[in-house]
Write a structure and sequence with these properties.
Blueprint lengths: L4 H6 L9 H101 L4 H98 L27 E14 L2 E10 L7
Antiparallel strand pairs: 1-2
Helix pairs in contact: 2-3
Length: 282
């Protein structure tokens, strides 16, 4: 026997007879709904925590990417500055080397001229001795100049080797920079994917919150009215219209063919009586 809700709403102070089995079923369904409500709230809390963790991970990843970009920029600037300084030093050494070679050529030319003059002016040995001494002193400077040229050439070769090494490092760093740019692009794609997931989670959270409000409203509607002492009459007896059986011979069960309403996705069926003796349903 179902509850006449229209009658209860029309006369809420009037007593109504309701079978205990129906109240127990109603209480079980209410308990199930409350359990579902608690589980839904827990899931909402977990979802919020996961969203907070995801946002923190995104902030940390963005910070690391920015630091990496700054370090790469500084390294590249240092290498460019080193390359420019080495080129200037090489340029200066080449200039000095050219000057020294020119001076050496001039000294050799002078020495040749002096040797020729010495052969021609052997008869003027006395007058030429001072000139010979002077020229000899200048000729003695030639090995020193050659040594300086050799040392400068060694420094040039060393600086050229360093420049080649620096260029190789620049090439390697450019390759690493390209790889890091690719990594940054992948990170950007991951950030976009995480942003999309966050949007989906927020939408799911909004839907779950809406469903939670709907379940709470339905739960409020399904709560039975307060039952006072002696609120239901228990002396009414159901009689089988077919064989006349009463009492324990009559059982109450759900009528699966009649759906009264839905609580969320749970159907609320009407009740029917079944005679245990003759099997008649009414």
């Amino acid at each position: 026997m179902s509850i006449d809700w229209a009658r209860a709403e029309g006369k809420p102070s009037k007593k109504m007879s309701v079978e205990g089995r129906f109240l127990l079923d109603l209480r079980a369904k209410v308990n199930d709904l409350e359990k579902q409500l608690t589980e839904t709230k827990n899931e909402l809390t977990q979802t919020k925590d996961k969203l907070a963790d995801t946002m923190n991970e995104l902030d940390e990843t963005q910070s690391k990417l920015e630091q990496t970009e700054n370090q790469l920029t500084e390294t590249k600037n240092d290498l460019e500055k080193t390359k420019i300084d080495d080129q200037e030093v090489i340029k200066d050494l080449n200039t000095d080397n050219n000057n020294l070679k020119q001076e050496l050529a001039e000294f050799k030319s002078k020495a040749d001229d002096l040797e020729n003059n010495l052969a021609i002016k052997e008869t003027k040995a006395t007058e030429s001795e001072e000139k010979i001494a002077t020229l000899t002193s200048e000729v003695e400077k030639i090995p020193t100049l050659e040594t300086q040229i050799s040392a400068n050439e060694g420094e040039i070769e060393e600086l050229t080797s360093k420049l080649s090494t620096a260029q190789g490092e620049i090439t390697q760093l450019n390759s690493q920079l390209s790889e890091l740019n690719n990594t940054l692009l992948q990170r950007d794609n991951q950030i976009q994917e995480l942003s999309d997931k966050i949007a989906e989670k927020e939408q799911s959270l909004e839907s779950a919150t809406t469903h939670l409000h709907e379940v709470e409203s339905e739960l409020e509607e399904l709560k039975p009215p307060d039952i006072g002492a002696g609120g239901f009459a228990s002396d009414e007896r159901i009689t089988c219209p077919m064989c006349g059986s009463v009492g324990k011979n009559i059982k109450v069960t759900e009528d699966k063919s009649k759906v009264l309403s839905y609580v969320g996705h749970i159907p609320m069926y009407a009740k029917k009586h079944v005679c245990k003796k003759c099997g008649y349903e009414f």
